[in-house]
TrEMBL record:
GO terms for molecular function: oxidoreductase activity. Belongs to the LDH2/MDH2 oxidoreductase family. Keywords: Oxidoreductase. This is Malate/L-lactate dehydrogenase. The keyword Repeat does not apply. Transmembrane segments: none annotated. It comes from the Bacteria.
Length: 410
C-alpha cells in the first residue's frame, strides 16, 4: 500500500460527509491522500471545490421509476403501482430501510422466479370472519394489500375479521396495511415473520426474524395513531442502508458473529440483531412467529427451509403474515370514537416534558411529519451509492428514465 495513503494531509480540503443530526450531506475537511485520490477519480472536484451533490428524488418520479421497472420485468400495471407506492411511501416516511434499497433484491427474485410478477392469489379456506390466503409468491406489498382489502371487506360485515397469508414474501413496512384500515375507520393490526436474524432473550445466536407488528387507530383532526415496530432494536433494513452507504451503526443494535456488540454494519449483517426491550421484544417476536407460521403452515423463522428459500433467488420466501381489521362502527359511533382519540392525544401531549425533550410524539407521528417535510422539500433524499445502483438497474433493463436532475449541487 502506498505509504502516503494513511498520512494525514497538511492542507485540508473539503469532503462530503453524512451529517446524522441534520440527515443530510455536508462538507468536512479531507484527511488523507486516499480521500483526495477518491475525489479526483470520481470527478467530484470542479474549479477547486467539491461539487458532490445531494440527491433528491421527487415522490411522483420515484413512483414512476419503480412502476416502470416492475412493468418492464413483467408485472401488471396495477401490481407494479402498488409496489411503487409502497416503496416510495417508505422513503417519504423516512424509512429508507424499506424503500428503494429493496429494489435490487426484489428484481433478482423476480428475474430468477422466486417472486411472481403475475401471481394467482387464491383463498384456501374461508369463513365469515376469516380467510387463509395463498399469495402465490406475489411481491409482498401486493400480497398484503390484497389481504387487508379482503380483511376490511369481511370486517365491514362481521365487525372483526382476520386474514392469514401464506407465501406472502417480504411485505415491507407494516404501517402501510394498518393505515389502509385507519383510512376506512377501522382499527388495523398486522404482523409478519421473517428469516432468522435476531436473538431471543438468553442467546446471541440468530433464532427469530425481526418479526414486526403494527397497530393503527384512526383519529379525526390528528394523524391516525400508527404504531409500527420491528421486534429487534431496529429493523435490519436500517443496518443494510448503513452498509450500502458505508456508515457506522449504534453499538446497541446488533452483535457480530462472535456475539459481541458491533458498530460495523457489514459485521452486523452477518451477525445477530438484538431484540428490543430484552425479553419483552423477544417474547413478542416469539408469539408473532407462532401466529404467522402456525396459522399458515409456513416454516418457523429458524427452520432450514425458511432460510434456504429466502436466499435462493429461484424460490419463493416461505414467509407468512397475519392481518386483522376491526370495524369501529360495529362497536360504537365511529366519529365519536375518533373524536375521543383526538382528545386523548391532546391530553397526552399536554403533559410536562421530560428534560431534553422537544415534544411528545404519538406512534407514527414522526413518519407523518416526515412525509409533509419531504413533500415541502420536493422529494426524499437518497445516498450516492443507492442512486448509482438505481441507475445501473435502469440501464440493465434498458429503461428510458431521466435521473440526472435528481442531483442538486449544494
Ligand atoms: N417486513 C419485515 O419483515 C419487517 C421486519 C422488521 C421491520 N419492518 C418494518 O421496519 C420499519 C422500522 O421498524 P423500527 O422498529 O426500526 O421502527 P422505529 O424504531 O423507527 O419506530 C418504531 C415506532 O416507534 C415510533 N417512534 C419512533 N420514535 C418515536 C418517538 N421519539 N416518540 C414516540 N414514538 C416514536 C414510530 O412512529 C414507530 O411507530 C417498520 O415499518 C416495520 O414494519 C419490516
Amino acid at each position: 500500500m502506498d505509504a502516503r495513503l494513511s498520512k494525514p494531509l497538511e492542507l485540508k480540503i473539503p469532503r462530503l460527509i453524512y451529517h446524522e443530526k441534520l440527515k443530510s450531506w455536508r462538507y468536512a475537511p479531507l484527511d488523507t491522500f486516499e480521500e483526495v485520490q477518491y475525489c479526483v477519480r470520481e470527478n467530484i472536484f470542479q474549479k477547486g471545490r467539491v461539487v458532490m451533490s445531494r440527491i433528491i428524488v421527487p415522490e411522483k418520479e420515484s413512483q414512476a421509476y419503480v412502476s416502470k421497472l416492475f412493468q418492464t420485468i413483467g408485472a401488471e400495471k396495477k401490481h407494479a403501482d402498488v409496489v411503487a407506492d409502497h416503496l416510495t411511501m417508505a422513503e417519504m416516511r423516512g424509512q429508507a430501510s424499506h424503500g428503494l434499497n429493496r429494489i435490487p433484491f426484489y428484481t433478482q427474485k423476480l428475474e430468477h422466479g422466486g417472486y411472481k410478477a403475475n401471481p394467482h392469489m387464491k383463498i384456501l379456506r374461508e369463513d365469515a370472519g376469516v380467510a387463509l390466503l395463498d399469495a402465490d409468491d406475489a411481491l409482498g406489498a401486493v400480497s398484503c394489500s390484497h389481504a387487508m382489502e379482503l380483511c376490511m371487506e369481511k370486517a365491514s360485515r362481521t365487525g372483526c375479521a382476520s386474514v392469514a397469508v401464506t407465501h406472502s414474501n417480504h411485505i415491507g413496512f407494516l404501517a402501510y396495511y394498518t393505515m389502509m384500515a385507519a383510512k376506512r375507520n377501522m382499527i388495523g393490526i398486522a404482523v409478519c415473520n421473517s428469516g432468522s436474524s435476531t436473538a431471543v432473550w438468553g442467546t446471541r445466536e440468530r433464532v427469530l426474524g425481526t418479526d414486526p407488528f403494527s397497530i393503527g387507530v384512526p383519529a379525526k383532526k390528528h394523524f391516525p395513531v400508527i404504531l409500527d415496530c420491528a421486534t429487534s432494536v431496529v429493523a435490519q433494513g436500517k443496518v443494510s442502508v448503513a452498509e450500502t452507504e458505508n456508515k457506522p451503526i449504534p453499538g446497541n443494535w446488533a452483535y457480530n458473529k462472535n456475539g459481541e456488540p458491533t458498530t460495523v454494519a457489514s459485521e452486523a449483517m452477518v451477525g445477530t440483531m438484538r431484540p428490543f426491550g430484552d425479553y419483552k421484544g423477544s417474547g413478542i417476536a416469539i408469539v408473532i412467529s407462532l401466529i404467522c407460521a402456525g396459522l399458515t403452515g409456513m416454516p418457523f423463522d429458524f427452520e432450514e427451509e425458511n432460510l434456504r428459500r429466502i436466499s435462493d433467488l429461484s424460490a419463493g420466501s416461505e414467509l407468512a403474515a397475519s392481518l386483522i381489521a376491526i370495524d369501529i362502527s360495529k362497536f360504537t359511533d365511529a366519529e365519536a370514537f375518533k373524536h375521543r382519540v383526538d382528545g386523548f392525544i391532546d391530553v397526552v401531549k399536554s403533559f410536562k416534558l421530560a428534560p431534553d425533550t422537544e415534544q411528545i410524539y404519538m406512534p407514527g407521528e414522526i413518519e407523518f411529519n416526515k412525509v409533509a417535510a419531504n413533500r415541502a422539500a420536493g422529494g426524499f433524499e437518497i445516498g450516492p451509492n443507492l442512486y448509482q445502483k438505481l441507475k445501473n438497474i435502469r440501464d440493465q433493463y434498458g429503461m428510458k428514465f431521466e435521473m440526472d436532475h435528481w442531483k442538486h449541487d449544494d
